[in-house]
């Protein structure tokens, strides 16, 4: 299990000390010292110890350490021999456009048609800011649909993974298949430049780190390629990442394959990335696979089970049920049942369903 979230407990120290340190200039310098100390010295707590918060006020150990450090500071500052601390870097971090606690409006800058049923949507924000999305997280979008009996607005909410560079400033891109019965995709298709969409996130499901596994296998269907692409790009652009990646990508027809040119280019230029395509309705000149993802494709195209193997799956509900089983009704990880994914192997893996990732170990 991962370490618990770090908590910085110096927020009240400056207020406590300011009641005593405001008369002379050395004391003002001390206040600056404590500000820097607060930024430089985090105290880490772990939920693994079963600690419970209490409403009773207690002085944190970190605050006591800061106070005792302050006494030493004044001693040295007032003595003939002054001890100087090294300058602490106080550069603020980059601006982040996303907010995981509230919905933020992003303006549609432009659209472009990518295929007969797929469009690219570019949204803009502060050009000095980053989106704030890690590999491979998704973000939630919502659109008003109707009002309930009490007159409150009802929303349709869907997760999407931007295909743009996570480090890009001022914009992000969605690649969305527009389905005839898709409420959210139809809403996106109706947008004009200048319209806004409410976004919230990021929703982190997988924090990728270089060489976390020796071999990653991927099964993607349709627009389920978008979170896969972000993981692939993160691996391939890092020369120190030796991870092998194998991708099985299923679509209805050759014309439905998204980002094929990009995927092919990455496969040609990176020997540690291999991609295999299969379609339900192949054309006469089609040279890839035909039909749904099969056991034979999985056995031949994905890595063998191992402690260093990771499997990612992302696609429409029908494919998910066929390959690994769908998610539960609350969108948590569902039970893996009667799937080609678990029958021939028994992987430790991740289950990506419509761009949202949830972990499971099978």
Summarize this structure as a short list of keywords or feature phrases:
about 25% helix, alpha/beta, 7-stranded mixed sheet
Mean pLDDT: 74
What portion of residues is helical?
Answer: 10-25%
How far apart the termini lie comes to 17 Å
As laid out across the biggest beta sheet, the strand order is 12-11-10-9-13-14-15
Explained architecture:
The chain is of the alpha/beta class. It has 8 helices and 15 strands. The chain has a 7-stranded mixed beta sheet with strand order 12-11-10-9-13-14-15, with helices on both faces. Strands 6-5-8-2-3-7 form a 6-stranded antiparallel beta sheet, with helices on one face. A two-stranded parallel sheet has the order 1-4. Helix 2 runs antiparallel to helix 3 (61-78). It is globular and about 55 Å long. Mean pLDDT is 74; it is low at 1-28, 30-68, 70-89 and 340-362.
